[in-house]
Predict the 3D structure of the following.
Amino acid sequence: MSFWERNPIYVVGAAETLLGVVPDHTELSMFALAAQEALSEAGMTFKDVDGIFVNYMGEEGSVQVGEYLGISAPRYVDSADIGGASFVAFVHHAMNAIPYGRCEVALIGYASRQRSLRNRSYTLKERGLDNAAQFEKPYGLPSPIGYYAMIAARHFHEYGTQSEQLAEIAVAARRWAQLNPKAWKRNPLTVEDVMESRLICKPLRRLDCCLITDGGGAVILSNKERARDARKKPVRVLGAGESQTRWNLSQAADITVTPGVVSGRAALGMAGISPTNVDFLQPYDSFTITVLTALEDLGFCKKGEGGAFVENGRLAPGGALPAMTSGGGLSYNHPGALGVQIIIEAVRQLRGEAGARQLEDPKIGVVHGVGVLLSTAATAVLAND
């Protein structure tokens, strides 16, 4: 029996914050409500939490969050920041802390009022004489979309990928969102609609880009003994991994390759599975190109074949690889960092709680977060145990 078979880790609670536009809460109060709901699912209270895993909720880290929630002396804290990948990475961190007694009940989460505050910047911040200041900023590249557009353009050049293929990803997300009453965008969408939307940064159009909303969520992880107290079916974490490549695009050997190659290999390897065993994928869909590179780097198709792979509704309801089943960042919710919400959606699918968008008896799902400018990645394999 392997170490992880002897010491299994479970998601025992998962809940979203208020979503969309949340003008009458702070990030802390939003997160507190979600954490309370997730703990209730786990059959626990804030008194049970002894591990806090959060970052950059406005300006709040683990100390501020712990104070607000009344968790004054946790045994393990983590405010690591690798962008939107952080929250899937926290699953990895908690998975490595719990079996060794560093903590028993890990609270992972995030909340943002990015839409209410309208505080997303589309310019590259001055960072002194670093590589961006020397080699990227002088050319006026807008951040983050300019970087993702360059990645998409290079993919088009190298592999013949087409804008219509990226549009298939946006359409798949919208078709799932139409089944989710909490989704921000639910009106019908076609490939033609995506292609006719305004060009923002060539080759990416407006509908290739994620939403800007308020939102977030909370996830509770624990060991097998504590999972027995859960009021809802625990979901097992079979494997996890994370990695990073570079901060600046100019330092990448190949801008179409992401650290998902390493994080995915680690997570699937730990779980003892291959992509053919996966029933659904919850990728971070900040842009349509983000999903396409994830499919390739996680091994669902070969590098350069992502465009053909997503055609004919493969990711949409009824497709061979259901993905973004909540509607994702493209149509459901994107509050600046989507990572915790893709975990929540995976948990709901594996519990059979996804309503009209529920898949038929899923056994294994993969969640894949990315961060910064496709600079970081974290992957986790969850199972209906």
User: Anything to note?
Assistant: The longest strand covers residues 214-223. Residues 143-205+240-383 form a domain with the Peroxisomal Thiolase; Chain A, domain 1 fold (CATH 3.40.47.10). The chain has 15 helices and eleven strands. Residues 122-129 have pLDDT under 50 and may be disordered.
